[in-house]
Amino acid sequence: MSPRRGTEAVADEGDLLSDDETVTWWGLVIEGYHTTHSLMMDEISQRVDLAPGSFDILIRLLRSPGHRLPMTRLAVEAALSSGGFTKVADRLARADLICREPSAEDRRVVYAVLTEHGLEVAEEAREVCAEILRDRILRPLGEQQSQSLAAAMRTLRNANAA
């Protein structure tokens, strides 16, 4: 969007969007995300028996080299407080999904590492998640709109990152 004129914003295509239309548009983005995400997390929870926070952590570890990340970094990436992350990590460790591994290079660093069981569960969760995303996002939007949506979200993330 270009600079504001009065109470209207000008879109790249030249259309005028009022303040109300702009706020409504953003509300639809948020509602679509929350509805889809909630349904997806509920289905993953039912099919793989993972809470949303646990799912996010396992997927991050699955995608990391050696299936491990420093616990402090993982807490930040999962948007959890140190205490909140510790509780989730404790539950994951009790379920034999992760183990804690001290760093050989820096005694202040502790890694969260997927166990064999954790790797199996994470791979199953990723498969279920991909299936749900195909049904709930890729099929309704199609390939082109799905790629545009991903590109738009990447642009927003990069433009607004701290």
Automatic annotation (TrEMBL):
<dbReference type="Pfam" id="PF12802">
    <property type="entry name" value="MarR_2"/>
</dbReference>
<feature type="domain" description="HTH marR-type">
    <location>
        <begin position="1"/>
        <end position="158"/>
    </location>
</feature>
<dbReference type="InterPro" id="IPR036388">
    <property type="entry name" value="WH-like_DNA-bd_sf"/>
</dbReference>
<protein>
    <submittedName>
        <fullName>MarR family transcriptional regulator</fullName>
    </submittedName>
</protein>
<dbReference type="InterPro" id="IPR036390">
    <property type="entry name" value="WH_DNA-bd_sf"/>
</dbReference>
<dbReference type="InterPro" id="IPR039422">
    <property type="entry name" value="MarR/SlyA-like"/>
</dbReference>
<dbReference type="GO" id="GO:0003700">
    <property type="term" value="F:DNA-binding transcription factor activity"/>
</dbReference>
<dbReference type="GO" id="GO:0006950">
    <property type="term" value="P:response to stress"/>
</dbReference>
<dbReference type="InterPro" id="IPR000835">
    <property type="entry name" value="HTH_MarR-typ"/>
</dbReference>
